[in-house]
Specification:
Elements (H helix, E strand, L loop, with lengths): L12 H16 L12 E6 L5 H12 L3 E5 L12 H8 L5 E5 L3 H10 L4 E5 L5 H14 L8 E5 L4 H13 L2 E5 L8 H11 L6 E4 L2 H5 L4 E4 L11 H8 L6 H4 L7 E4 L11 H4 L6 H20 L2
Parallel strand pairs: 1-2, 1-3, 3-4, 5-6, 5-8, 6-7, 8-9
Length: 306
Amino acid sequence: MKKDFLSIFDLTKEEIINTFEIAKDMKADRRKYAEALKGEALALIFEKPSLRTRTSFDIGIQQLGGYSLYLSPNEISLGKRESVHDVAKNLERMVQGIMIRTFGHHIVEDMAKYARIPIINGLTDYSHPCQAMADFMTLYEKRNGDLKGMKLVYVGDGNNVAHSLMACGARLGVDVTVNCPRGFEPNLIAFQDATEAAKATGAKIQVVHCPKEACKDADVIYTDVWASMGQESEAAARKKLFMDYQVNDTLMSYAKKDAYFMHCLPAHRGDEVTDSVIDSPQSIVFDEAENRLHAQKAIVYQLMKK
C-alpha cells in the first residue's frame, strides 16, 4: 500500500526518529545509498518558486540513484490548464513519486487521493512538513538525540511553518510556543491538532503575544518572514505591526545563554532578524538548510523504495 507525506501527522514519533537516523546515515556516507532508487523518477511540481526545496529534492533523488523531472506552472497550471485528477493520473503512469510545492493544501490532498504513487508535500499555504523535519533533525543532531525538555519559541506570523513546527514538537515531546501579534495566530485547526497530539508526549503547545515573556528560558528562537509568498501587498503594513517581534540581540538575551537561533530562509535581514543574530555563533540556519537535503532524502527513500 502506497504511503504519502502530506503532514507531520502522517508519521508517528517512532517513524520521525527513524527518519532522522536514516538521514544521519545518509549524511555520513551518501555513497552507501547511491543506487537505492536506481532508475526511479521523481516529478517536482512547482507552483511556487524555491531555492532550497528545488535544490534539495533535485540533488537528493540523484544522490539516491534516481532522477528528477521539473514541472513549472507553465507546464502544469494545476486546476486551470488541466485538473489535479488528470495530472495525477498521467504522472502515476510515468514517474514513481511526486513532490508538489503549491498554494492550497487541498491540492496535495487531492493529488494523493488520485495518484497511486507517493506524494510529498513540498509546501502549501497551510503546512511545510519537510522544513519541520529538517529543523528537528538539526536539533536532534545538536542535542545528540535528546530532545526531552526543550522549549522552542517561534516568533512572528502564525503561518505554515509555525503549523508544522507545532505538529513536530507535539509528536516529539518538544514544547512549542508561537509568539505573534494579535490577529496573526496560527490556524485554529492546526493548533487544536497539535495540542491533541501533544497529550501523548506531554509537550506544551501554546500561543502568546508578549515576545519577552515568550522567549524567557527558550532553548531555540525561531522566526520566518513576516509576509509570505502571496502576501507581498501586505508587507509594508505587516512591518509596522511586527517590528516588536524582531529577533535581535535584546530578544535573544531573554533565552538561555546557549539558545539556538533558527530560520527557515530566505531571511529579510533587518526585518524579522538582525545581522547580529543570524550571523552569530548561536545561529544554525545553514545547518537547517543543509539538512533539508538529508531529511528529504530519507523521506523520499522510505516512500519510493520497493
